[in-house]
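Exercise 7b. Backbone tokens:
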């Protein structure tokens, strides 16, 4: 009775513009509809909370970035408006920005409205590399927990009791239009309506509002990804890849350097399903951009909202090229240790990275060891952790010096396990190529690829 219909087109080569003409028989009177300037290409959905909502107008060098948008008419933009619902919707109730050609006007909209900076820089850099049209669909809402974006089945699978409201931990990311924290209310209203639209993949920037209750994130996040894939695959009659690529931004920082809130390192770890890297067995075809070294203490929007979104976008694209587009010659991850040697006499251990990576060391700080063989005593908030500085390095290894008297009991090691662990682009270990940081890490000192317990 509502006149709902859809047309499914056969796959088309990337490019355009094209025209489409449709006709509607309204009681014997034909009504013609002409769609002009239609492009075919890759469509990416961009979702999450305020750091995805954060607009191009708010970033560093915004004037230049907005003016540059005029060079990208083959990138098309769409932004959903803020709506929540207790039941699944089959169409968007409100649209903030209808499909638009990229331009200074469509990219440089009001703060917190359009266009999403992370989404734009990801799409722009992807277009620069691929050279064919890109569609970007933003559906995000500040201050929202992952439970709002997850289907009821995901929450049930993760044993999360139904609740009308979650407790937010991020006071600077709250108060911007209503806080839809009820379970599944944004899955229902801002994801479900898109399930009949064929997409290439999705990117995600969220987690700040789960730092106060992080324990279930290693279940809900992989579960949400699996659910989105399944539902999009079925909703598009199997035209969307059932394992479509999914990228995310590992959380940056908030507060001030040196603060010890453990919620942020916990979420960063749980974002990877407690592996420390992606793709991994629990999160196949997933990629990430590490942002822990992109803190912005003086951001006028609060330190929880760093203004450098250009580096976030470029890091996401490097990872997407490898994971989503299958390029095998792309350095898309920071260094990750593969082995260790121990010098008991010197109380040192040497951490090895793949020789082909070529690391650079920018700081001696960031590594800690736990002075106990007992995993229960090496929890995220334990006092057993002590700093171990880097005392030397090569192009493929670092040497850590244990200065405290606990050598015989050391089993576990962690890296960047602070809310704000380092200065801007100045954590300890980076790859020489592409200047990518080593991701936060928690694991076994002698077997870095092994998940605890050791």
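Sequence design result:
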């Amino acid at each position: 009775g509502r006149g709902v219909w859809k047309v499914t087109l056969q796959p088309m080569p990337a490019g355009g513009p094209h025209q489409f003409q449709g006709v509607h028989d309204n009681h014997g009177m034909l009504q013609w509809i002409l769609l002009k300037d239609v492009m075919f290409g890759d469509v990416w959905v961009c979702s999450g909370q305020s750091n995805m909502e954060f607009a191009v107008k708010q970033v560093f060098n915004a004037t230049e970035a907005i003016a540059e948008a005029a060079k990208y008419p083959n990138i098309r933009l769409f932004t959903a408006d803020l709506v929540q619902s207790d039941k699944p919707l089959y169409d968007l109730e409100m649209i903030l920005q209808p499909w638009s050609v990229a331009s200074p006007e469509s990219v440089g909209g009001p703060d917190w409205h359009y266009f999403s900076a992370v989404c734009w820089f990801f799409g722009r850099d992807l277009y620069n590399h691929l050279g064919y049209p890109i569609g970007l669909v933003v559906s995000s809402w500040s201050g929202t927990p992952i439970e709002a974006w997850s289907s009821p089945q995901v929450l049930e699978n993760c044993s999360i009791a139904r609740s009308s409201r979650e407790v937010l931990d991020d006071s600077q990311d709250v108060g911007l239009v209503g806080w839809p924290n009820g379970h599944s209310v944004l899955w229902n209203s801002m994801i479900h309506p898109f399930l009949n639209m064929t997409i290439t993949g999705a990117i995600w920037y969220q987690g700040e509002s789960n730092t106060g209750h992080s324990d279930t994130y290693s279940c809900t996040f992989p579960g949400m990804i699996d659910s989105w894939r399944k539902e999009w695959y079925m909703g598009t009659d199997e035209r969307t890849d059932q394992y479509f690529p999914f990228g995310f931004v590992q959380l940056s920082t908030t507060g001030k350097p040196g603060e010890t809130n453990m919620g942020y390192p916990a979420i960063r770890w749980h974002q990877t399903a407690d592996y420390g890297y992606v793709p991994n067995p629990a999160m196949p075809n997933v990629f990430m951009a590490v942002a822990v070294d992109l803190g912005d203490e003086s951001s006028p929007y609060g330190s929880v909202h760093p203004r450098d979104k250009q580096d976030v976008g470029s890091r996401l694209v490097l990872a997407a090229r490898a994971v989503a587009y299958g390029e095998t010659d792309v350095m898309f991850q920071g260094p990750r240790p593969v082995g260790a040697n121990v010098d008991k006499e010197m109380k040192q251990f040497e951490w090895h990275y793949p020789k082909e990576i070529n690391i650079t060391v920018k700081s001696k700080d960031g590594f800690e060891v736990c002075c106990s063989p007992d995993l229960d005593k090496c929890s995220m908030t334990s006092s057993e952790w002590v700093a171990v500085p880097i005392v030397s390095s090569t192009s493929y290894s670092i040497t850590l010096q244990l200065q405290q008297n606990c050598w015989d009991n050391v089993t576990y090691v962690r890296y960047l396990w602070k809310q704000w662990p380092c200065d801007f682009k100045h954590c300890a270990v980076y790859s020489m190529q592409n200047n990518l940081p080593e991701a936060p890490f928690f694991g076994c000192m002698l077997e870095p690829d092994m998940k605890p317990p050791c």
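Instructor comment: The first helix runs from residue 50 to 53. The radius of gyration is 23 Å.
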